[in-house]
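Re: that backbone. Tokens:
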């Protein structure tokens, strides 16, 4: 073999490997760049909770963080880690654990959008003695963390029992944190009450999209002990919680909303939409999604008004109005418009759907051009009646036929309420 042939025999395969490697690498980077561009165009650039920041001096582009993220929110751009889909990051922290160069820090809030974190001590008690916080409200947004905090908070609360009060604790919220805390209260035979504003347990999990795969880890549940789970569908997780409630006989007051908490001697009076309760301690396990924002218009209390789409099929052959301008409003409208016999209208007070995914914007344009959805921008609902409603559309009053209203106008966050009851809240702008 001549020297040239030998070189060709070794170099050509090497060059081919390098070529395909670089091509694959470039394609991946292009995908990550377009994901980031789409997030920027849709205004979805702010992570909701705990999220990673990448130190460009330490990051050498190993890419270990990319597959580690269960939400596929991370990409590599110009050889450095980036949060390319910030809005879907929920703070698993798997990226930080996977990074071999300690280039990732998990932080709360961003320079643009602060995140309010209530002050709690290691026993989960706030600066207001007797009021405890567990779960995502405290800043950490994961199921297993919420469960663990709910369990630990109850360990602290049980030490405060006082027979002067009819209840040892009122637990507010039946998401993962509130459920674990309620099981803890049951295990320690506390006199307790759990109130949940919705008609189901599960908290945020109840609102996940159908068939979502939930990534979690084994957790310790009071009464039941260690529960092994890692990947589970939303439906299976909901079923698991429902079985737990059935098996343990746990009582939850559904559709009962906590409205205020006031000091009462060395305990509290908790006022709900149904009654007043006196308790020595209060556990806030209310998450961060808040309470659905209401329209505050006459007729809003009619049963045809709801704040969430459950089953598009129930609106078949009906005239439906969706209120709101976010992704959930658009997705609800598109899903209902697919049902036979429906007429669907979206009412949004803004001039354009600024903060929605491009894909939804496009689907809406198509549905609108085919006459399947009517869009009323710069409009506000003024009055709701049994078979019609009144809207103010750019200053003109109009009446439309209506059988159902779905309000997707965001949530009222709990921060003002926390401040009102004296809990210290710190706003974090991209800090640990
Ligand atoms: C789209 C999405 C996907 C996610 N995926 C995952 C995942 O794969 N794995 C994971 O570990 N985590 C995931 N999370 C995060 C996880 O769902 C939350 O961290 C967890 O549910 C927090 O539990 P929590 O009990 O603190 O709060 P929540 O689950 O928010 O529950 C709070 C409860 O309190 C109730 N409440 C609020 N205010 C009141 C009131 N005034 N009166 C009565 N009740 C009230 C609410 O109705 C709610 O039921 C995801 C979150 C989202 C948004």
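Recovered sequence:
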């Amino acid at each position: 073999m001549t020297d040239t042939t030998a070189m060709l025999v070794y170099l050509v395969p090497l060059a081919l490997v390098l070529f395909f490697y670089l091509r694959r690498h470039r394609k991946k980077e292009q995908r990550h760049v377009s994901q980031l561009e789409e997030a920027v165009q849709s205004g979805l650039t702010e992570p909701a909770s705990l999220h990673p920041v990448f130190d460009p001096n330490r990051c050498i582009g190993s890419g270990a963080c990319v597959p580690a993220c269960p939400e596929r929110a991370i990409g590599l751009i110009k050889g450095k880690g980036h949060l390319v889909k910030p809005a879907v990051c929920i703070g698993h922290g798997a990226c930080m654990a996977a990074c071999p160069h300690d280039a990732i820090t998990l932080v709360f809030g961003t320079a643009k959008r602060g995140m309010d974190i209530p002050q709690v001590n290691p026993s989960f008690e706030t600066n207001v003695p007797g009021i405890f916080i567990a779960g995502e409200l405290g800043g950490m947004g994961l199921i297993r963390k919420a469960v663990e905090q709910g369990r630990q908070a109850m360990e602290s609360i049980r030490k405060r029992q006082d027979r002067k009060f009819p209840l040892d604790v009122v637990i507010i919220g039946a998401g993962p944190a509130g459920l674990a805390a309620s099981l803890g209260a049951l295990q320690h035979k506390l006199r307790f009450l759990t109130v949940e504003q919705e008609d189901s347990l599960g908290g945020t999990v109840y609102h996940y999209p159908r068939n979502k795969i939930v990534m979690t880890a084994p957790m310790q549940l009071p009464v039941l002990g260690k529960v092994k789970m890692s990947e589970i569908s939303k439906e299976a997780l909901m079923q698991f919680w429902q079985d737990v409630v059935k098996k343990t006989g746990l009582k939850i007051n559904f559709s009962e909303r906590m409205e205020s908490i006031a000091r009462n001697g060395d305990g509290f009076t908790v006022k709900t939409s149904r009654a007043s309760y006196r308790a020595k301690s209060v556990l806030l396990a209310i998450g961060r999604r808040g309470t659905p924002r209401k329209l505050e218009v006459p007729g809003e209390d009619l049963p045809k008004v709801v704040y969430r789409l459950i089953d598009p099929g129930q609106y078949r052959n009906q005239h439906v109005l969706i209120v709101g301008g976010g992704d959930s409003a658009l997705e609800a409208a598109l899903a209902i418009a697919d049902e036979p016999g429906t007429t669907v209208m979206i009412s949004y007070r803004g001039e354009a759907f600024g903060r929605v995914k491009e894909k939804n914007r496009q689907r809406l344009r198509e549905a609108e051009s085919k006459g399947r959805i009517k869009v009323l921008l710069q409009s506000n609902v003024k009055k709701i009646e049994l078979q019609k409603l009144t809207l103010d559309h750019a200053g003109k009053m109009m009446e439309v036929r209506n059988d159902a209203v779905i309000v997707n106008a965001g949530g009222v966050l709990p921060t003002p309420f926390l401040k009102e009851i004296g809990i210290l809240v710190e706003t974090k702008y991209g800090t640990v």
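The first strand starts at residue 51 and ends at 54. The chain has nine helices and 26 strands.
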